[in-house]
Prior knowledge:
mainly beta, five-stranded antiparallel β-sheet, Neuraminidase
Amino acid sequence: xxxxxxxxxxxxxxxxxxxxxxxxxxxxxxxxxxxxxxxxxxxxxxxxxxxxxxxxxxxxxxxxxxxxxxxxxxxxxxxxxxxxxxxxxxxxxxxxxxxxxxxxxxxxxxxxxxxxxxxxxxxxxxxxxxxxxxxxxxxxxxxxxxxxxxxxxxxxxxxxxxxxxxxxxxxxxxxxxxxxxxxxxxxxxxxxxxxxxxxxxxxxxxxxxxxxxxxxxxxxxxxxxxxxxxxxxxxxxxxxxxxxxxxxxxxxxxxxxxxxxxxxxxxxxxxxxxxxxxxxxxxxxxxxxxxxxxxxxxxxxxxxxxxxxxxxxxxxxxxxxxxxxxxxxxxxxxxxxxxxxxxxxxxxxxxxxxxxxxxxxxxxxxxxxxxxxxxxxxxxxxxxxxxx
Length: 388
């Protein structure tokens, strides 16, 4: 994965040094082509492998909408987009070993590690590596390598890598636990590490920076009390000492409410953690606890208030900044990627049950020593507008 040193609050004007370094100037960018699965998907595997953005799996409701009782479909299709030549379009790769969604992805030097998830029947322990090697005429040849399965099935979890070790945690774990698992890509052995602090975190974000993991957001639901708990914070884990630290609260929202990075996504830019997307705290909690209106699934997109603000944590200073609305980041189940000077939001839901095929690109701009981020291209594809 390519990274940049930058220090910005997206959509705001700040000095470049706030996160360390600079963007090195603006990059000419074009709108990226829509994802080739009609209607888009939610919760796919996605990441950068060299110059390629690789996306596969995920799920949607291709026939009858979810609001009308439709059946969810899981996909095994896999695609790659050459970010050096995005106009060349998506390249069809061999299908995933099975149709999966709600798995966890980690970018590594060996390729894209995909772990867990679920198919149409149940959660899985499967783990595999998507890799590319130079082929004839310098055309990349793609393949899979099986990795040792997870010790327990995990869906809706999160993954990150540090120095050749892939860490997986959160989500629905088969034993109901809160374990952190580590896979050393050299020894190919899984190790169970200390559990993260309560409560459980389903659909969290896991980021790695400065020798630490940061487990952010997520939610848990207790069916016996019909109570939904949404942690408005993140918990650091020190890779060297193997200890979890104290929770770091999210900033307070402008309206005095809380942020819910549940179903959200994130990226690391220099020494800053970027968290965005996901559901609205109050609306989601009420729905999970059975207090939503009868027409909950049929409200307009704006009603659900999916998060399009960006929470930025400076790991050096230990403080937060919040960017106001960045159009196109309001996705649940999308994946935020970083490629050179571009942030990329891959698919996801625009409202419960309705996916987007858009691959949203956001470019860094430097004007008179100040930086901002603006969307590149459209916000919704024409196909998605018709569905909505």
